[in-house]
């Protein structure tokens, strides 16, 4: 093949990918904003009068929006997901209210959560605690408001005043929910990890290699408040096999494929000690010691322990995306056709302004998924001050953030790792767990 022909093919591919990205952006944002508007109407008319019906209808409005993101992971990038763990943990996952404790290392960990919950047919009932700034993100952030996500100030003195009420609203759901907790408080970066290690050394806490030191105040409150309401805690560990490209949302949009490996461990919430904040905090720290060992072994073996189940992609996400591509795409393409054929200045200005605005919004949304957009944890050098109270330390200023954590005064020793039997089997595709 001649160099000139190769250049033509390369340019054609770039142009084609750009046009596809433009079309996907327009469709997702227009449909998302329409669904946000319908959610607002639904909230104003039903939330305070018939909350059960509101949640049933809102489930599908959320589904129609979020599954367009999943279609990018499943069908645009042709990516996969494997579940590891014991048979009971995998089989019972998602059948009751669950608290999820997950590592927070990758830009697309939230996409993987959606992928799994969609497989369990509970996508719209997956909840999380998110930083308050995400409320301002169009489509996703606005949808999270109507999905009753818990938004936090990252100031425990303020957050604890409303946390109980928000948890009660979630636990009253008739259908199973998953409450996802990133106890590290922010995504893992080398800078934040360095600050975390320094903090752990100053407190006599376990030194973690693949995680940040967990913040215990929120989990302490949730574990105590939800006992008797949420029966299970799931220790979930996410890993991606090492590839040339990092698993970011922008790389998904470019069509790069990834395989997510997810470890599940089912733990009764009744076994989590909640008699004191110190006991609960120590339990959480020891869980992160175990998570660190899991991650260390994963990087060496490229697999988690236990049986392996390959999660099948959903054709519903593809069908939903195609329907929206027709419903939104055809009018949009017709508008472009009018611009090209009529030369109307007003119409040209309107379409061009809309195009620029929507791409600005999409760029902002993708940027929010990057690890660099996490909290300032680890980016400032100010060391926390210690105040002894009832055998605990409250560290209010940790690298510029108010966290008001409660940590045992005594030095915690590294937990000895249990000898686990590796039951790894060949992954097999199944329709239902």
UniProtKB/TrEMBL annotation:
Keyword list, A-Z: Acyltransferase, Membrane, Transferase, Transmembrane, Transmembrane helix
Membrane spanning stretches: 14-46, 317-340, 346-366
Alphabetized Pfam families for the sequence: Acyltransf_C, Acyltransferase
Stretches with biased composition (Polar residues): 414-433
UniProt domain Phospholipid/glycerol acyltransferase: residue ranges: 98-220
Record-linked InterPro entries: Acyltransf_C, Plipid/glycerol_acylTrfase
Region listing for Disordered, in residue ranges: 410-433
Annotated Gene Ontology cellular component terms: endomembrane system
SUPFAM superfamilies: Glycerol-3-phosphate (1)-acyltransferase
Domain of life (superkingdom): Eukaryota
Any one GO molecular-function label of the UniProt entry: 1-acylglycerol-3-phosphate O-acyltransferase activity
Family: Belongs to the 1-acyl-sn-glycerol-3-phosphate acyltransferase family.
Name of the protein this chain belongs to: Phospholipid/glycerol acyltransferase domain-containing protein
Organism: Larinioides sclopetarius
